[in-house]
Inverse folding.
C-alpha cells in the first residue's frame, strides 16, 4: 500500500464528503500531526519508490519471465 492510515496519511470513506472534511479539519488544526504524517510519507517514498530500486525490480521481473519462456 502507498498510504498507511495514521502513519503517513489519513484514510477517509470513499464518497463521504463529511469524513474527508473532518480529516482535513484535523490536519488544519493539528500541525504536529500534519508534520509527522508528511515526514513519514517522505521517508516511505524515498525507501519504497526510489527510481533505481524500482527499475532494478522491473529488470529482475523481466529476466525471470524470459527464463520461464526459454528465450
Amino acid at each position: 500500500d502507498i498510504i498507511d492510515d495514521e502513519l503517513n496519511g489519513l484514510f477517509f470513506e470513499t464518497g463521504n464528503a463529511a469524513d474527508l472534511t473532518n480529516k482535513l479539519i484535523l490536519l488544519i488544526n493539528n500541525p504536529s500531526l500534519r508534520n509527522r504524517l508528511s515526514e513519514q510519507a517522505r521517508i516511505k517514498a524515498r525507501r519504497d519508490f526510489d527510481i533505481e530500486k524500482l527499475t532494478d525490480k522491473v529488470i529482475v521481473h523481466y529476466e525471470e519471465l524470459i527464463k520461464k519462456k526459454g528465450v
About this structure: The radius of gyration is 19 Å. Residues 51-69 form the longest helix (19 residues). The mean pLDDT is 96.
